[in-house]
Amino acid sequence: MNKKMQLPLQTMNLIVGFMVWVLLSSLLSFIIEDIQITPQQAAWVTAIPVILGSILRIPMGYLTNLIGARLIFIISFILLIPPVYYISIANSFIDLVIGGLFIGIGGAIFSVGVTSLPKYYSKDRHGFVNGIYGAGNIGTAITAFSAPVVAANFGWSTTVQFYMVLLGIFIVANIIFGDKQEVKVKTPLIQQIKSVYKNEKLWIFCLFYFITFGSFVAFTVYLPNFLVNNFDLDKVDAGMRTAGFIAVATFLRPLGGWLADKFNSLILLMYVFAGFTVSAVLLSFAPSINLYAVGCISIAISAGIGNGVIFKLMPQYFNKQAGIANGIVAAMGGLGGFFPPLILTTLYDLTGHYAIGFMALSQVALASLIIVIWMYYQEKLTISAKVIKTSPLGMMVTNKNGKIITVNPAFTKLTGYSPEEMVGENPNKLSSGKQTKKFYEEMWKDIQQYGYWQGKIWNKRKDGNDYLEWLTINAIQDDSGEIIQYAGIFSDITDSDFSKTDLKPQSI
């Protein structure tokens, strides 16, 4: 029963953590009525919580494996209470920066669940499970929607203090329902880092999550104040629109994880980054509020599905180093939300509009789309290479002129010839002399007519002994139908009963 509780409990923990994480950005339009700060300082106030919320994700992922999610959540929520109270009594820009830095702990707990929860489920459900947990992002929507409404009635300071009660409730919940017997992974931190930092896929996933989750965070913290200042919307209306953005991105995250369990994750990411590219181009033209809403919702859809897909891929590639790998990628996603608000504000001060910032997002998304396409075809080639290398059947590929391009290990085992001895040679180097000229003429006639030939043929090993093989030759064509290579696949049937049957070759 305790193990079944972990997914709902940890998802609720993430909701609470994210509710605290975006307190300042959600209430900023109220706070600036009491604390005089410049637009540039306001951008820093909304961005500062992202710093600790990103950096701490790396050690939190590692520590989750070491001591378990239960203790990490309890300690995190206890540590959040002082900065939340400090913000509620803040009266200066410095107070907001200090308090904001430490409420970043609320965003850092994301890497706890994505490290802990896969331990309770089979691999074919990791995408959906991490997607459900990631839906805890809805905590940002809850605060963005409810905090302004509560603040309008009770004041922003009292609203902030309400969150201390919420943190207390979940400290108790984790003490009672947290899993004390969670499986621990005690691989040394340095060893985990050494095993992942040279893997280019880790840094590619960092880029992808920098865009998908980074855009989610950036829009979450930037939209409330931006909509008020740029479109003169009411503060509560701006909060509700921001909550709508967050809700779309959050509820689509489990869908992204579920789709990744069913379909090729890299193909899904192609659609995700194509969506980002088009949406960011639309936003760069500084559209009306209605078109801006369309662009934002498209970003939310792409971000939500993309976030779910990426954390399906993580356990697939980094099963033994899940804690540190999840932490690094999650940290980069958080940092992806730190820089855009500052950059957009700076660009607006310099140029008077946000077009360059949104255009930059479209270009980075386009570059990511190109990388995903490369990864997809690279993976197909890698799989093909593994099949050739591990197959027990001898394989040989020649160019259209009959020169050998490659052979596999089984070829060497069956014939005695190494790749160095065969590459660049003609396959007739294996000829036993037992087949007639007419035999080969009919073979090649069938290959040209049907595209393949199959039958028995005598060949000679390196040691001079003849052997009978069952051979299949396929003509490989390009998109225009022109033959570019030939692939031969064979097995030794010398001592099998099959060798005693008629030697007549077959075309099929």
TrEMBL record:
Source species, domain of life: Bacteria
Alphabetized Gene3D superfamilies for the sequence: MFS general substrate transporter like domains, PAS domain
Start and end residues of each Major facilitator superfamily (MFS) profile domain: 5-380
UniProt keyword annotation of Transmembrane present: yes
Record flagged with keyword Transcription: no
PROSITE patterns, sorted: MFS, PAC, PAS
Entry-linked CDD domains: MFS_NRT2_like (cd17341), PAS (cd00130)
Residues of the PAS domain: 386-426
Entry keyword set: Membrane, Nitrate assimilation, Transmembrane, Transmembrane helix, Transport
Transmembrane segments: 12-32, 44-64, 71-90, 96-117, 129-154, 160-177, 202-223, 243-260, 267-285, 291-311, 323-348, 354-377
Subcellular location: Cell membrane
Domain PAC: residue ranges: 451-505
Membrane topology: Multi-pass membrane protein
Regions annotated as coiled coil: none
SUPFAM superfamilies per UniProt: MFS general substrate transporter, PYP-like sensor domain (PAS domain)
Family: Belongs to the major facilitator superfamily. Nitrate/nitrite porter (TC 2.A.1.8) family.
Protein name, as recorded: MFS transporter
Organism from which the protein derives: Aquibacillus rhizosphaerae
